[in-house]
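Hi F.,

I've been meaning to write this up properly since the lab meeting, where we talked about keeping a consistent format for the predictions we share between groups. The idea is simple: the sequence comes first, exactly as it goes in, then the structure tokens exactly as they come out, then a line or two of notes. No screenshots and no reformatting. I'm using this chain as the first example so we have something concrete to point to.
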Amino acid sequence: MTIVTAVEDTERDRRVIAEGAALADAFNDELHVIHVLDRDSLEEGAAADEPGSRPTLEVARDIAADIASLETKEFTPVGRIGSPAGEIQNYTEETEARYLVVGGRKRSPIGKAVFGSITQSLLLNVESTVVTVRTESTS
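Output, unedited:
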């Protein structure tokens, strides 16, 4: 089986990777680290459209690899393009993951309603067990 760990592109993701790696070690599972580039956040004339540039899927995979390599050496980097919550959910289901590990931040109810929450969507919709790692300090 697999442990899927979703990362953004921040230093906070180190705790998320560490938890995913610990679960993978404990269950002797493969660790897959996924990063999703949101279509809305891609600039006009994105890298995929420019001659000689790296495709955006490769960029997303490289971001996952760069973040994961800070905490572990054994993982499979995965890059996707689209809605982060949807792509993470689809990948988790495709791989029949034992666990999905995601980061979470403390947000007000109004903040969640106005801005949405990828973590909240995953908690409500993914059939695998979802482990949420607090990515901010509690002080």
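Notes:
The radius of gyration is 15 Å.
The mean pLDDT is 85.

If this format works for you, I'll send the rest the same way.

G.
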